[in-house]
Design a protein that fits this description.
about 210 residues
Length: about 210
């Protein structure tokens, strides 16, 4: 690595780390239950971990963008970090990166002011922000030749497999859960079944 390639390496390295952190944020969000908990961790710890990983991912993305802008090999305007398709270089892939960054920022900002927002609005933005991961993955693989072969391709595939497994786990859990409207009826049905079972056992002992 030389002085002329330092920013190139910094951009690639921070981009990979940011992708890994975004993967962790997404997987953690998918694994959190309706009560905002993970097995073995209290709610405040899960919330703090999720928020801190998100902030750390944004920090690495900021360094990734800055290093790419300072790299003299190509000319990338700073505005292209937040304005999609503003760059003349790799317009599509850098535009996807800007979209992913904007979605990530929207999720973090709304999470920081969650107490002042309507819950439905916060949830809509939060769910929309999940799109930042596949968009970021497309940006990474399209703009970086490193992720199209070799060990870095293996890392990308591993992230994809982990996210797919988390999505399947979440969907399977949602399918097993009783809808909120039917929870009372389900509890009453179980209570009635337990009552009938108890009476049957009591009758058998007589």
């Amino acid at each position: 690595m030389t002085g002329s390639t330092a920013f190139w390496y910094a951009s690639r390295a921070t981009g990979i780390v940011a992708l890994l952190l975004l993967t962790a944020v997404l997987v953690l969000g998918l694994l959190i239950t309706r009560q905002g908990r993970l097995p073995g961790l209290p709610r405040f710890a899960v919330t703090g971990l999720h928020r801190n990983l998100s902030l750390l991912a944004v920090a690495f993305i900021a360094v990734h963008v800055l290093a790419a802008v300072l790299d003299s090999y190509v000319s990338i305007p700073l505005a292209s970090a937040v304005v999609p398709f503003a760059s003349g270089y790799e317009r599509l892939w850098l535009g996807l990166g800007a979209i992913a960054f904007d979605l990530m920022l929207a999720m973090i900002v709304t999470s920081l002011v969650r107490g002042r927002l309507n819950r439905a609005l916060w949830r809509a933005v939060h769910l929309l922000a999940y799109l930042s991961w596949p968009v970021a993955l497309a940006h990474s693989m399209g703009s970086s030749r490193d992720l199209q072969h070799g060990p870095m391709l293996d890392v990308s595939v591993a992230c994809l497999v982990i996210v797919a497994a988390a999505v399947i786990w979440r969907l399977a859990g949602a399918a097993r859960q009783v809808p909120r409207a039917g929870r009372v009826a389900d509890v009453m049905a179980r209570h009635d079944a337990a009552t009938r079972y108890g009476r049957a056992r009591e009758g058998s002992w007589r």
